[in-house]
Amino acid sequence: MKYRFTFFSAIVLLLASCHNGNQQFDAAGNFEAVETVISAEANGKILAFSVTEGEILQPGQLVGYIDSTQLYLTKLQLMQSRKAILSGRPDIRTQLESLQRQLANAISDRDRIRNLVKGEVASQKQLDDANTRVEVLQASIDAQTSILSTSSNTLTEQGGTVEIQLAQIEDQLRKCRIVNPVGGTVLSKYAEPYEMTVQGKPLYKIADLDNLYIRIYISETQLSQIKIGQVAEVLIDSGPNEYKKYDGTISWISSQAEFTPKIVQTKEERVTLVYAVKVLVKNDGYLKIGMPGEVNFVN
């Protein structure tokens, strides 16, 4: 019972905090940003890492690189292997040139003998022998072509396997370059040059501070009064009883209540059911992560 009293008291204080003197607010909360932790994609020593906290980075900006010597040597080795494999492919045209000439001579002899047979100068056996020689040479050419083509295709396939291995190495080499993926401001730096890193180890944290959102909590009765895309007025303290106003937009509404035990079901206590809401605000530089703010919903 003591725990429940403390819990309900905290909720009441949260809702009551939305009223400050004569100024009334629909909700209050703190500013947050979308934070992204950038991790290493390769293993090795960090040879360069030019990131400082507070620095604004652009998407695609190169901020450092990891030692890639061994990967580059592996790439050279694979390139030589591919060259050696492909150089072993037979020159089918050159290797069949001699047989092709023999076949052409055999066809010429057969045609000459055929004409002699018509003139009854040569025998039918001579013509049969000439036809057999043409057929044997043609069969030999076909067989040799098949063997050479199979050998060439096999070596080409082996070269293709090396190509895939080269593509894998190229991908690993690209991952040795530390490239910033999103635009924003560096919040924290977790690594320094010449340290050893491994794949997945955090290097730095970055956030888009140009667009912050304030996370607020509303009661169930307020839930039916707002929708995603609705305009909201966001205020921060700028002096005693003075506020600076920003235009905001409701970008997310939680579908589940928070901070309320499931056993609380009575109508009287339903006000303690609160829902998280995010209001997106364009930052002019004065808004900071963690800063408190108030929100008024605009109908």
Mind explaining what this structure looks like?
The chain is an alpha+beta fold and 299 residues long. It folds into three domains: 2-33 and 209-297, Elongation Factor Tu (Ef-tu), domain 3; 37-67 and 177-205, Beta Barrel (OB fold (Dihydrolipoamide Acetyltransferase, E2P)); 69-174. 39% of the residues lie in helices and 32% in strands. It is built from five helices and 16 strands. The strands form four sheets. The protein has a six-stranded antiparallel beta barrel. A four-stranded antiparallel beta sheet has the order 4-11-9-6, with no helix packed on it. The chain has a four-stranded antiparallel beta sheet with strand order 8-7-5-10. Strand 13 and strand 14 (242-258) form a beta hairpin. Helix 2 runs antiparallel to helix 4 and helix 3 runs antiparallel to helix 4 (124-175). The longest helix has 52 residues, at 124-175. 17% of the residues are buried.
What does the secondary structure layout of this molecule look like, with pairings?
Layout: H1 2-16, E1 19-20, E2 23-24, E3 27-32, E4 35-39, E5 44-49, E6 56-57, E7 62-66, H2 69-87, H3 92-118, H4 124-175, E8 177-179, E9 184-189, E10 196-197, E11 202-207, E12 211-219, H5 220-223, E13 231-239, E14 242-258, E15 274-282, E16 292-297
Any descriptors?
single chain; 299 residues; alpha+beta; OB fold (Dihydrolipoamide Acetyltransferase, E2P); 5 helices; elongated
